[in-house]
Amino acid sequence: MEPPKVCRSRSAGAGTDEWSIRLNASHPPWLGLIRWIAGLVLALVVVTTSAPPAKAEGPVNLDGAELFSLHCAGCHLNGGNIIRRGKNLKLATLERRGLDSVDAIARIARDGAGQMSGYGDVLSEGGDCVVASWVLEQAQNAWIQG
Ligand code: HEC
After folding, report:
1. 4 in helix, strand or coil?
2. Ligand 1 mean position, distance from CA 75 (Å)
3. CB of 87 within 8 A of CB of 75?
């Protein structure tokens, strides 16, 4: 008798063997993938939770020169005034207007004056005084750095 051309019993047997090997294996092929994903998720959690806080919550920067260059230099570069040239930050001008004190400059920095709006919101707590004393120091030094 001729053997059947399509050997169903043999292929079925082989298939069953293969399947049972996979089921019994202690490390099924997808376990590696699951572990990899778990590791990735864990790494992401660690990275996101240990990220540094937003800059706004960081230590307050109270450097007069930096505050000035951030919030004032746009109009008062080197103690000038690009909008109202006469209302500059030179010592003689400040003296003439009675603004040659940290308090007076701090008040303008905070609340503004005339055409200038106040910067109390962006100069953080105490920043108005820090920038004002820096401005007065520069004025007394004729705005010559170094
Ligand atoms: C958008 C432009 C602008 C910015 C930014 C600005 N100022 Fe002024 N500042 C002016 C103008 C305009 C005047 C004149 C106001 C007026 O009397 O009408 C002035 C006036 C002043 C005066 C009075 C000067 C004088 O001779 O009468 C002081 C002091 C001063 N500003 C300090 C500061 C400080 C400190 C900052 C930063 C916190 C600052 N300004 C940011 C435009 C600006």
Report:
1. coil
2. 7
3. no
Residue with CA at minimum distance from ligand 1 atom 3: 75
Fold held by 62-140: Cytochrome Bc1 Complex; Chain D, domain 2 (1.10.760)
For every one of its 146 residues, what pLDDT tens digit does the chain have, with 9 covering 90 and above? 665 555 554 444 444 555 545 555 567 777 888 888 888 888 888 777 766 555 444 455 589 999 999 999 999 999 999 999 999 999 999 999 999 999 999 999 999 999 999 999 999 889 999 999 999 999 999 999 75
Which sign, positive or negative, has the C-alpha torsion 129, 133, 139, 145?
negative
What are the tokens at 65? 């020169």
